[in-house]
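Thread title: Can someone regenerate the structure for this chain?

I was given the following input by a collaborator and told the matching structure tokens would be attached. They weren't. Posting the sequence so someone can regenerate them.
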Amino acid sequence: MGIVLAVVVGGLFAAIQYVTRPVHQTTVVVETTPNAVAVDPSTNTIYVTNNLPETLSVIDGSKRTVVASVPVGHRPDGVGVDPDTHTVYVANSDSHTVSVIDGSTNTVTATVPVGNTPFGIAVDPGTHTVYVANNGRPNTVSVIDGSTNTVIATVPVGNGPFGVAVDPDTHTAYATNSGDHTVSVIDGSTHTVVATVPVGNTSGGIAVDPGTHTVYVANYGHPTVSVIDGSTNTVTASVPVGNNPFGVAVDPATHTVYVTNFADNTVSLIDGSTHTVTATVPVGNNPDAVAVDPATHIAYVTNFGDHMVAVIEPR
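Best answer:
Regenerated them for you:
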């Protein structure tokens, strides 16, 4: 049976249609060219980087309104959150830095120099370690100690590191290498690459389901998501999705995977147990990144071309 999907803009119903999964979508207007997104589930706060105004929009998840705009470095392209310390980290690709933001005051407290053209960023909350994929040469991942805001290691990886994700249970980091279509597996205790996994064409966004130790990789150059078994570092499935899949996120409670299809203006929902697409949800123009709040099971999608964040809520 179809469920109503209502798109709300400025308090008015802009469109109503039916989808095959119980989801409800609203939108939050942010600033120009929003790209990366992250969630602090303990405060129900969503953080969105805006590429052109070089700011971080802070969204109150309960009210779905922007409550602050924080200036960061040049061309912010990645964002991550430590939910234990409520610290936000923003990768500034043109500044070659990471802005450290106090989530309680929405102020920048430190700026950390990293490698060339930092893009993806992820946090291991158990160790308060931050991993930054430096997309420019010499192709590295910077490892930041979140307690001191200093780089403690620089890990050589494959060509064109783009996205990065962490399994908090195993303290393993995974970095996609868009230039050679691989994923580098990094041991969090030694800060060394322990495996390299071939995936699809132009690997980009990446996410981990810590409950199953499964890694999902969006292959932008081919409409698939590669599924990696984190215990064996092998690809176990390839899931067809929409055109130019870019961002990926996992709800660890439901094992649902959300994939943004940049060219199709949709989000594919994948059942993590069957590795099949269960729904395709229309969103705004050029959906870029996606993040899921594990406390509310709500997904947030940045629409790069529409300057909005789509809110997808199961019900």
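The domain at 29-300 is CATH 2.130.10.10 (Methylamine Dehydrogenase; Chain H).
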